[in-house]
Amino acid sequence: MDAPPRWLNPRQQAAWDSFIRMQEQLVGRLARRVQTDSGMSASDYLVLAKLTESGGRLRLMDLARLVQWEKSRMSHQVGRMAKRGLVAKEECSDDGRGAFIVATAAGRAAIEEAAPLHVDQVRRLFVDALTQEELDTLASLSNRVLAHLESQPD
């Protein structure tokens, strides 16, 4: 017989509900603003940001791991971005099965234009709502949950 569910108590439920509402509203507002300001989707922005932060050239699987996506999702996203000229695929000379994803000049220009607008929104909607001590606590708590997630089976 299965063990009964371990329901959340009211304080745990309130913390979880608040976290989810905050995360969904914040991500939603930032995604809409990136789209409005730059014409890029939040996915375009994330891929270009991680790609350019890493030097502008990564293997597809490394990029997928970096943004925590499945290979198929990354392949579809890269395909859409390549059609718009934001990224290009380059064959990997030492591994015929692999490919590098490279930020194009247009992709670099797009992220360079979008990033200052995005960081202004992150600051306005998130950073400015908290003290530095609260930000440090949030970073510590987030890192603790991330470490816990790594220790748990998927």
Automatic annotation (TrEMBL):
Pfam families xrefs: MarR_2
SUPFAM superfamilies: Winged helix' DNA-binding domain
GO BP terms in the entry: regulation of DNA-templated transcription
Entry coiled-coil feature ranges: none
Domain HTH marR-type: 1-147
PANTHER family listed in its UniProt record: MARR FAMILY REGULATORY PROTEIN, TRANSCRIPTIONAL REGULATOR, MARR FAMILY
Identification of the protein by name: MarR family transcriptional regulator
